[in-house]
From TrEMBL:
Region (Disordered): 73-102
The protein, known as: Uncharacterized protein
Biased composition (Polar residues): 93-102
Organism: Rhododendron simsii (Sims's rhododendron)
Keywords recorded for this protein, A-Z: WD repeat
């Protein structure tokens, strides 16, 4: 994540480092968690879905990252660094440091759409937000497992409030070839365009 006003990265998310606090299961695929594709919502979706980024990973995981939470996490870590010549008081700051670490863990929680939820069993190659119906309501991902997944990801945040276990898989489309690219359209029908490794472009309808 870049801060263009300063010409430097503002936050680096390293998927190669395992994180037990991010809520992600290890990918079903044995491939490294390289970033294969990412998507951000259109401007008119932000009020609904928030400032998020979706990453299609080489290990098959599709991960939703809350950008503002990541920035808050960075600021929290920076605030813990002592100023030059200053020393932390062991007793006085112990509770505040622990509280900040707890907040940091909460901030860093991400939504991982992995194989345990019916996700990809091979590398996820592409990802996009839905343009049809209620914009941004669905996330669509394609993978080397010859499938397209349609995720009703907004249900996760609704069901967290009720402590229920949401079923986020809206639709699974099996293909005969690996998926290279996909996009959605605002139409009510023929609203999903998929290009596979056979160089064939296929149009589907997602309701």
């Amino acid at each position: 994540m870049w801060d263009f006003s300063k010409g430097r990265p503002r936050k680096i998310v390293d998927f190669s480092v395992p994180d037990s606090d991010d809520g992600c299961s290890a990918g079903q695929s044995l491939n490294p968690a390289f970033v294969h594709a990412l998507a951000v919502p259109e401007v008119d979706m932000v009020d609904k879905v928030g400032k998020v980024c979706v990453v299609a990973r080489g290990d098959g995981v599709v991960e939703v990252i809350d950008i503002e939470s990541e920035h808050a996490s960075s600021k929290s870590k920076n605030s813990l660094k002592p100023h030059k010549g200053a020393q932390l008081k062991a007793k006085g700051n112990a509770s505040s440091v622990q509280t900040t670490e707890t907040q940091d863990q909460n901030w860093r929680k991400k939504l991982c759409l992995d194989y345990s939820l019916g996700g990809h069993t091979a590398s996820a190659s592409c990802v996009a937000f839905s343009m049809f119906g209620e914009k941004g309501k669905h996330i669509l991902s394609g993978g080397n497992d010859k499938s397209v997944k349609v995720w009703d990801w907004c249900r996760y945040f609704d069901d967290v409030q009720t402590s229920s276990n949401p079923d986020l898989m809206h639709l699974n489309i099996n293909l005969s070839k690996k998926v290279n690219w996909l996009r959605t359209t605002p139409a009510d029908s023929e609203n999903l365009i998929v290009c596979d490794t056979s160089k064939v472009v296929t149009v589907y309808t997602v309701a």
